[in-house]
């Protein structure tokens, strides 16, 4: 089961509500435009950018083709370096592993590196249910957590918030869970960052256990890699005595050398930097340096299901850069919450349905997941921006066909299906089509005396005509025109 937020409506309803929030649209437009401009500048510096994209895609594809062997090699390398490896089939198993490790050390709070996979499995909520506090240390994640909010972007979870809103959240909430914000707090970025630094430092120095994800896991050496911009992640990876890293099985890279194209693609595509300020790599346990007990949880949670999909498996190449979100015209206008998942935007529109277990999803969640492949204009900007060349439009169309196929056995067919079946019935017989054309021509001549368009259609057609003019049927069909000007069409013309 994926990290779909329970109770979120289907995308069309959520998007309609988001479009009414002018402040949200302003925040998103400003932030995505800034990130796009930075990315474009550093990408243009790379003469062989397209070759680099091809190389990154090839590395991920090679790992996925031999994933079973790569995972075994990764486990062996990790164990040889003193780490304990756990295998988790789903979110419940992964969460229980973290809970068991925390209880074994009598831990009642942990610090966390920014991690999409821990959001996917609902780790914070699972820990809270057993009395363990999980503190987010990434600045944007901290804003979301203190605000009782949901993340709306892969890279910048609080992209929907502006500086004034963040100042209010810090002033109101920091003192309730730790070191309070200063009384003279302003909304200047440097001042807000300083308040977060003081607030988090207390937690870093107190925590004895940390949880992280990993951007990459090198099978050859057992090395885990985290890239970040703030340094908070490195504090989590070095100060606590116990470290648990939850890693999606698709994060495997076969060899150390194959990290090269990925570490050049990721920062440029995500933060618009040539290199991330902090690239942390650790391999098991190093006596006297860093955590002395390291656990690695290798998580499936639907990934082998996605791997079995010939078209959809390319989504597992994703390196979580968020470039597709920043160029998507749909995301820019409705934001991440409308997608109802920790994976928003174009990549979320394909990743969530691919990971979901059909047998475990109730009707409301099924409707929400079925709506995601339609949350796109298919403009192709996401494919052009993707550093590992995931053809998101191709997968979207593939998933749309799955949605349609899944409703073929419904007792009450959807209006769209009825319309296409009716069209198929009409076009299947030339004589039948000819009779319908004559009827539509008659309707066009009668209605054309008073109007030029049909106006607003009733029922399901209202959604179309609310934003478009629907012209009247032509008074004369092509067949009739041809017959009048060139003679008959033949026996099959439908006369």
From TrEMBL:
Domain 4Fe-4S ferredoxin-type span(s) in chain numbering: 315-390
Residue ranges occupied by any LUD domain in the UniProt entry: 73-299
InterPro entries reported in the protein's UniProt record: 4Fe4S_Fe-S-bd, 4Fe4S_Fe_S_CS, FTHF_cligase-like_sf, Helical_ferredxn, LUD_dom, LutB/LldF, NagB/RpiA_transferase-like
Assigned keywords, A-Z: 4Fe-4S, Electron transport, Iron, Iron-sulfur, Metal-binding, Repeat, Transport
Pfam families reported in the protein's UniProt record: Fer4_8, LUD_dom
Top-level taxon of the source organism: Bacteria
PANTHER family assigned: LACTATE UTILIZATION PROTEIN B
Protein name per its UniProtKB record: Lactate utilization protein B
Annotated source species: Nocardioides vastitatis
């Amino acid at each position: 089961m994926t990290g779909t937020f329970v109770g979120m409506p289907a995308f069309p309803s959520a998007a309609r509500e988001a479009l009414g929030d002018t402040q949200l649209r302003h925040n998103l437009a400003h932030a995505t435009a800034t990130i796009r401009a930075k990315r474009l500048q550093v990408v243009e510096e790379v003469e062989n950018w397209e070759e680099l994209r091809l190389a990154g895609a090839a590395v991920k594809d090679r790992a996925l083709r031999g994933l079973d062997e790569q995972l075994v090699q990764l486990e062996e390398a990790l164990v040889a370096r003193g780490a304990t490896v756990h295998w988790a089939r789903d979110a419940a198993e992964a969460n229980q592993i973290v809970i068991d490790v925390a209880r074994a050390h009598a831990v009642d709070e942990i610090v966390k590196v920014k991690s999409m996979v821990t959001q996917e499995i609902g780790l914070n909520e699972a820990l809270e249910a057993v009395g363990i506090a999980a503190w987010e240390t990434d600045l944007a994640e901290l804003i979301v957590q203190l605000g009782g909010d949901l993340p709306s972007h892969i890279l910048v979870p609080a992209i929907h918030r502006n500086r004034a809103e963040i100042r209010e959240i810090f002033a109101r909430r920091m003192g309730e869970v730790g070191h309070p914000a200063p009384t003279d707090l302003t909304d200047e970025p440097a001042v807000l960052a300083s308040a977060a630094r003081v607030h988090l430092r207390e937690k870093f120095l107190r925590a004895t256990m940390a949880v992280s994800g990993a951007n990459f896991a090198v099978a050859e050496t057992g090395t885990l890699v985290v890239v970040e911009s703030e340094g908070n992640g490195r504090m989590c990876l070095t100060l606590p005595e116990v470290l648990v890293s939850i890693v999606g099985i698709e994060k495997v890279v076969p060899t150390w050398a194959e990290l090269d194209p990925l570490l050049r693609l990721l920062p440029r595509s995500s933060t618009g930097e040539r290199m991330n300020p902090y690239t942390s790599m650790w391999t098991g346990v190093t006596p006297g340096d860093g955590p002395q007990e390291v656990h690695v949880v290798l998580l499936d949670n639907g990934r082998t299901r996605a791997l079995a999909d010939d078209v959809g498996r390319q989504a597992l190449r994703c390196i979580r850069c968020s470039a597709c979100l920043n160029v998507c015209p749909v995301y820019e206008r409705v934001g991440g919450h409308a997608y109802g998942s920790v994976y928003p935007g174009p990549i979320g529109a394909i990743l969530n349905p691919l990971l979901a277990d059909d047998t475990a999803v109730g009707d409301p969640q099924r409707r929400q997941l079925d709506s995601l492949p339609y949350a796109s204009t298919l403009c192709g900007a996401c494919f052009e921006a993707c550093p590992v060349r995931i053809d998101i439009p191709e997968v979207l169309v593939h998933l749309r066909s799955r949605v349609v196929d899944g409703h073929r056995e419904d007792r009450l067919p959807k209006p769209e299906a009825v319309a296409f079946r009716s069209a198929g019935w009409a076009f299947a017989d030339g004589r039948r089509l000819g009779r319908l054309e004559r009827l539509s021509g008659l309707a066009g001549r009668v209605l054309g005396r008073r109007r030029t368009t049909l106006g607003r259609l009733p029922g399901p057609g209202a959604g179309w005509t609310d934003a478009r003019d629907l012209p009247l049927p032509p008074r004369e069909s092509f067949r009739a025109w041809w017959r009048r000007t060139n003679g008959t069409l033949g026996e099959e013309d439908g006369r």
